[in-house]
Amino acid sequence: MRAPARSARNTVKNIALLVLVAMLCMLCAANWVLGMNIAQMPADNLLRRAYDHLVGGAVGYELRSSGVAAAEPAQLALRVDGQLYGVQYNLTEVEAAFSAVQTVWEKALSDGTLEPADEAALTAALQTGDCALLRYHGRIPLRVIASWVGGIWTDGGDTAVETLLLSADAGKLFVRTPDGALYSAEVPVDADALASAGQTFRGMACGFAGDGYAVYPETLLFDSERLTLPLLDRRDIDLFSAQSGAGLEGLLQAFGFTAYTDFYSEQDDAVRVFVDNASTLRVSADGLLQYASAQGDSTVRAYEEGEVRGQSALDAQLDCARLILDEALRAGETETHAALYAVQRSGDTTTLTFMQLYGGVPVLGESDFASFSFAEDGTLVSATVQLQRFAARSTQRTVLPARQAAAGAGEGARSLMVAYRAQDGVYVPARYYLSSAA
Questions:
Q1: Strands 83-88, 115-116: pairing kind
Q2: What is the pTM of this model?
Q3: Is residue 223 domain-shared with residue 237, that is, in the same domain?
Q4: Domain that holds residue 384
Q5: Euclidean distance between CA atoms 121 and 133, whole angstroms
Q6: Are 283 and 239 in contact (CB under 8 A)?
Q7: N or C, which terminus of the chain has less Cβ within 10 Å?
Q8: Which of 21, 42, 64 corresponds to the end of one domain?
Q9: What is the pairing mode between strands 380-386 and 288-293?
C-alpha cells in the first residue's frame, strides 16, 4: 500500500510544481506588459488588440472611427443598357441611389495608378457602354472617397477630386480635379454588379453634356429637370436661452468641457469664454464657436499619439470633426447638415473645411461654415463653426435647368452648381457657373 500512496503524493507535488511555474510565468508576463505603454501602441497592433479585448479598453480609435461619410454626393448617375438616370440635390434620393451603386464603387476603388488622361478618351467613354458617376462639392482626396465606399486607394490617393466616372467599356476610372485636370486609372469593373445596381437604381432620365457645350463633358443634363426650392429666412439663435441649455451642455461635452467648466462673460453675456488648463472655447449666443488649444495640449483628440497613422489618422480626424459638428448642429437646432469641402495639409497640421447644406443644397456665405485644424499627434489645435438657423418660406423658386445653363455657358464656365446665397436678407437658390480655376 505504501507504493501507491507514495506515487499519489509525488503526482500531487508535480502538479503543484507545474502550477507554481505557470503562475510565475504569468506574473513575469504581467510585469512585462505593465512596464509597456499599451496606450501608445497602434490600434492595429496584435498585443494592443488582445489587451483591449481582455480589459474592455477599446475606447480609442476603434470606437471613434465610425466610417460614416463626411459628405454625401451632390449628384449620382448610372447607365445600364444604354439608359442613363441620375439623382441630385435631394438627401433621400441620393442616399437610396448611393446604396444601389456602393458595391460597384467599392470594387472599382480597390486601388489603381492615376495618370494624366486625354479629354477625348473621356468623351468617348461617355458615348457608349455602361458607366457610373459620382460628383461631390469641393476638393476631397480620392483615398477619402474610396474609404467611404469601402475601398482602399493608395497611389495618387491625396489627389483632390470632385467628379469620378467609371467606364465599363474602357475599364477605367476618370477623375476630375477642382482645377480642371483630368486623370484616369485602369480599375476592375464588375459588369454583374453594374447590372444588379441598374435593377434598384431610381432617378430621372438624363444625358452627358459631351463635347457640344463649354461645360465639362461629364456634366449631367436632365431631360425634364424642374428643381424647385423654397426661399430661406435666417432665424436668430440663442445658445444661452433656457430652452437651449441641454444643447449647450452637449456642445461643451463635444469639445471636451463639462457644464461646470469655468467661464468668463463678455459683451453683456453675449459671449462666454470657457477655459481649462489645456484649451479655450468662445461661444457666442448667436452661434459662433471658436476653439483653441494651449501649448500643444488639447481637450479634444482624434486619436492618441502613435495610435494610428496615414489614412487611418485622417479618417479619425474626419470622424472627430464630424461628431463635433453633429452635436453643434443639434445644439443650434439648425435643421441643416455639414459636408466636407476640402482637406489641406501644411507641415504637421491638417485642416478640414466643411460647408453647410439645407436639404442637400449648399448654403454659401462670406466665410467657411466650419474648419478644424489637427496636429500630427491627433490633437485638435483650433476650430471655428458658424451656426445658422433657417426657416423655409412658402414661396419657392425654380432653378434654371442644367441644359439651358450649359447652353448659355461661356468658355470659362466649366462646371455648374446649385446653391443658396443671401440677397437682401433672404437666401435665394440659383444656378451658378464655376470656372476650372475656382
A1: unpaired
A2: 0.83
A3: no
A4: 233-391
A5: 16
A6: yes
A7: N
A8: 64
A9: antiparallel
Torsion, CA 345, CA 346, CA 352, CA 353, rounded to 10: -110
129: nearest Cα among 160, 92, 68, 84:
84
220-275 residue pLDDT tens:
999 988 999 999 999 988 888 766 545 788 888 889 888 788 898 898 889 999 99
Contacts of 84 by beta carbon, 8 Å cutoff, 6+ apart: 77, 78, 205, 206, 207, 208
272 and 219 in a single domain? The answer is no
Element (H, E) at 434: strand 426-434
Residues 237, 287, single domain; the answer is: yes
Phi, psi (rounded to 5 degrees) for 55: -105, 5
222 forms beta bridges with 206
Residue with cell 453675449: 270
Do 321 and 387 belong together in one domain? Answer: yes
Diameter over CA atoms, the chain? 110
* 297: its cell numbers: 495640449
If asked whether residues 152 and 217 sit together in one domain, one would say yes
The residue assigned the cell 439645407 is 358
